[in-house]
Amino acid sequence: MNKTITYQIPIGPIHPALKEPVMFEFEIEGEKIKDVDVHLGQVHRGIEWAGMRRNSIQILYLAERICGICSYSHPAAFTLAVERIAGIEVPERAEYLRVIQAELERICSHILWAGVAAHEIGFDSVLFLTWQIREKALDLTEYLTGNRVTKAIMMIGGVRRDITEDMLPTIRKSLDFLKENFEKLRKVFLDDKTVQMRTKNCGILTKEDALKLCAVGPTTRASGVKKDARLDQPYFAYNELDFDYVTPDVLTGEVNGDVYDRIIVRLLEVKQSIDLIEQCLDRMPSGEILAEPKIQKLLIQLKKAEGEAIGIIEAPRGEDIHFVKLVGEEHPHSWKVRAPTYNNILPWIPMLKGEQIADIPIVAASTDPCMSCTNRVAIVKNGHRDILLAEDLHRLSVEKTRRLMK
Q1: Neighbours of 311 (CB within 10 A)
Q2: Could you point out which of 60, 276, 304, 381 has its C-alpha 20 to 30 Å from the C-alpha of 107?
Q3: pLDDT at res. 371
Q4: CA nearest 97: which of 236, 244, 228?
């Protein structure tokens, strides 16, 4: 009787197919994956620790730098939590402007993901096509905010910049360009036989596993779970807009929960985001864009605020949650971030089991992971948990550098 032989192979944290540091340990039988484990912890920046030593407005700039792709979603979630604690009423026009920025970020993120996905299956020509289309979305972002990546548009109580009447023709022209090129993207990704062969019935996440493992964003919607914070817990002006959950059966009539379905969801959400921006432009009321335009008065109000709250945003990758506790002091007592990738890590395990080694990159990339959003510093020894402070991190870094220099 032949005995089955399996092998352990590590992939990462530094690997050509992985754009961010994460380590996988695979048990393989031939080319087939029998089991998988995921090891995090290669990225530590101490942003939450730094935030609790700054005032709430200064934290906005830190929150923007948690993730370059979600540089609007993180400060937006933080702002929602602070506004709820301080009882700040945001002007209605600002709520519509916030939706426009959120959906423009979703477009940029999903198109970027499409390019990375194409690269992972060897279609670099499609990667360049998506970059060309995304460039127009980034140009529009710069036109509206003055920046392409860290937008600095969010402010507690509203937004920093308005959209004037003379800006509307340029915005609509950019949206028309995106709509025209959406059909090109759809055909390249959804009608190409090679893409279908590489992505259909690959990296399947069932609806049951998506619910059990608390997957979020396009990852869970691609498995047929109708979960979207914009609809389930409306914020900004989303309750005034007409849209619905995007699941793959909208296009194909069925849900398989594979990589192909995750492509469908993200592409359809690009189209949906364009429509939401156009609705905002048509329905946006006139009025102020800030509840309190004077920064000093706002800081005094925030310094007096006490309480705790969470802000939930449907970021491009899924639910982004910020917990904030204010205790009537200049600095927050607590600030904790739970980025969407945190929830989409465990679903990797059922997605990867039973697949081929060659499919690892596209299956992992199909959840659009962001490890910089996810990792936190905590040391557990003998059941005791220690938190590393800035001084500890500096000391350990110096010690490691000296060891390496020897």
Answers
A1: 22
A2: 60
A3: 76
A4: 236
